[in-house]
Predict the 3D structure of the following.
Amino acid sequence: MELVTKQIGVLVMSYGTPESLEGIEAYYTHIRRGNPPSAEQLKELKDRYEAIVGGVFPLRENTDRQVEALEAALNRDNADPAVQFVCYQGLKHAHPFIEDGVESMMKDGIAEAVGIVLAPHYSSMSVGTYIKRAKEKAEACGIQMSFVESYHLHPELIDVLSRRVSARLDQFEEAGAKRSEVRVLFSAHSLPERILTMGDPYRDQLLETSAAVAKKAGVTSWQFTWQSAGRTAEPWLGPDVLDTLRELSKEQVEDVLVAPVGFVSDHLEVLYDLDIEAQSVAGELDMRLMRIESLNSDPAYMAVLSDVVRTRYNQMKVSQL
Ligand code: FEC
C-alpha cells in the first residue's frame, strides 16, 4: 500500500459558543467587536442559554462531531492514497479561534489547505468575515489556502433538507392535518438591511435553497422569513418569524412547519428562537408549529461538505499546474 505523502489541512469554521455560563460575557463582548454588553443585555442572553438546556452549550459538541465526521468522510471518499485530509476547527467567536486553527496547521507542517464554513449561504457579513480572517492568518503562516464560499444548491443538501421537510409533513398528516394546508416557512438568520444595497448574494441564495427544497418535497404553500435579528439600532431584514406567525394567524393558517435552512446545527438560534420563542407565540395564536430536524452530523450533510472540499482542493491543484 502506498504511503501518505501529503497532508492537506481543512479549516472547518463555525460560529462558536461559550464553554460555560461564566464565559458568556467574554463571548458576547467578542460578538460585539470588543464592546462589553450592558448588565441587562448580559442577563437576557444568560437567561436564553439557561432556558435551552440548563446551561449546556450544544453547538460546541455538535461542531466537534461535525469536524470529526467530516475528516472521516473526506478520507473515506478520497481516491488518492497519497493524500490525507486533516481537519482543524476554527471558531468565529470562541476558542479555538479561526486564527488558532490556522496556527495549529502551521505547527503541524501543513502547506496546503481548504477552508469551509458550517453555513451554506454566503454573505460578506457572515461567511465573508470568516474567510477574511482565515486568509490573513494563512498568508502570515505561509499556508496556501483556498475556500468554499457557498454550497446552498448542492443536490445532496437539497435532497436531505427535502427529506426532513417531508418527514415532518408526514407527522402533520398523521396528526390529522391536510398536507397541502401546512404552511412551510423557510428561515435564516437576519442581517442588517444594508446588505441589499451591497449586492450581497445572501438573500437570493436563501431563496434559491428554499425554492429547490420546496420543489423537491412537493411543497406549494411556502414562504421565506427571517429570524434572530441582532439587537442593534439599524434596520434588519424582515419579516421576522414571530411577525410572520401573527400574519399567518390572520390568514387562518393553523399548521406551520419551520425549516431553518440557514442553520446546520442545534444551537441557541434554533433551540431558543424557534423551539421556545416561536413555539410560545404559536401557542398564543392556537397554531400547531413544528420544526425540521437540524442536520448536525447527518452522513448526508457530511457527504456534501466532503464533496465541496475535495472539489475545491482539486481546483487548487489544477490552478498550480
Ligand atoms: O448556540 C450558540 O451559542 C451560538 C448561536 C448563534 C449562531 C449564530 C449565527 C449567526 N449569527 C449571525 C450574525 C449575527 C450578527 C449579530 C449577531 C449576534 C449574535 C448574538 C448571539 C448570537 N449571535 Fe449570531 N449567532 C448565534 C448567537 N449574530 C448570542 C448576540 C446577542 C444577540 O443579538 O442575540 C450582531 C452583532 C452585533 O452586535 O453587531 C450580525 C449570522 C449567523 C449565521 C451564519 C453563521 O453561522 O455564521 C449571519 C449559530
Q: What stands out?
A: The two ends are 27 Å apart (CA to CA). The mean pLDDT is 96. Residues 15, 17, 28, 31-32, 45, 57, 59, 119, 125-126, 189, 191, 230-232, 267-269 surround FEC (CB under 6 Å).
